[in-house]
Amino acid sequence: MSTSIAPWARRIKKERELRGWTQRACVERLRYETTRELPEQSTMLDQWKRWEAGRVMPSAEYQRMIASLFGSVSGAFFAAPRSPQEVLEAAAPGSDTPELLARLRRSAVDQATLESLRLTVDRLCSDYPVINAHQLLTEGRAWLARLADLLELRVSLTQHREILSLAGMLALLVGCLEQDIGRSPAAESTRQSALTLGTEAGNTNVVGWAHEMRCWFSLTQGDYRTVLTSAEAGIEAAGNQSVSVQLYAQQAKAWARIGNQQRVEIALDRGRELLEKLPPPMDPSHHFVVDPSKYDFYAMDVLRRSGNDKLADGLADEVLSTSTDWSGRLVAPMRAAEAYVTKGVVAARSGDLEGAISYGRQALDGTRQSVPSLVMVSQELGQVLTEQYKNEQEAQDYIEELRSLAERVA
């Protein structure tokens, strides 16, 4: 009876073949890129063949080396699919909302109340990728108002700081949702409030994410210099926290659009090296946590922008595969949408108009969208269609759909 090859083994082979490398060349590159002493070449080649066949899993050290060789992180390359039980165990325990509201009405602010509030904020942040943006925005604003009321009460200094931190995190979420639905001025105002709350609380994670949001907003507006300066400010504030990984990714995206490939690679390498050192996140679905699989999403964007179609298309497949959970439910629809755009751009460049339109429409059909980001990446597909298929009616119809989407954020 044949056994299926592990996903990590299939990916090792796929990444090698996408680059046109032989197994021997991969072994030579491993030897070149590490300072540690490796076994002799023939032994390493046999080891590589066993890895690629899925007969033995690389050690943790070799996992990091292999992922680095292909410009990724071990957490994305060698992540095992999570079982339903693991998903349930990783989820933050739900708070008893009616009891929590009753305590807040009684102005009962103790540690149990703050812990329930923290779980509520975490739950809202984890709902971000899949819950309707308008619905989640209404709920987020309601809880933010309750937290603001708590700040008026007589509480200890420690409690005051924790409430400020929770309000800052919730303000970040509200600002992201406002941006997603095209309310950019409101989103920027809320982002500034989050920055103030994080600063007052001394919460460098909130401060870092507030700078990251400015990077994101500026990127969608084509203001790449602000992306770079805001990223530097965020990294300086947050240090070696996971938000800095995303800040390096925003730098890479900006440099890719400016056209400086060397800077792109430096930014991606810095983010990859930091992410490799961080522990796996307890809840990868939390919007303000950088999970390892997101690194492929970052790299996909810059590879598409640089015209490296083969590798971009391969990473788009990886992004799509990690955008569903064990049950087949789409858990990262916004990432999936950008992956479909990437595949559409690659198809259009290769002369496949039908495939390009099909992928493009899959990107636009999602019910959970970040409209400014989707407009930004979809314009790349629209540009290729305009340049290569300006006389094709199907291409013109799709470009018109893009114009309608862009009007929502104009």
UniProtKB/TrEMBL annotation:
GO terms for molecular function: DNA binding. InterPro entries: Cro/C1-type_HTH, Lambda_DNA-bd_dom_sf, TPR-like_helical_dom_sf. It comes from the Bacteria. This is Transcriptional regulator with XRE-family HTH domain.
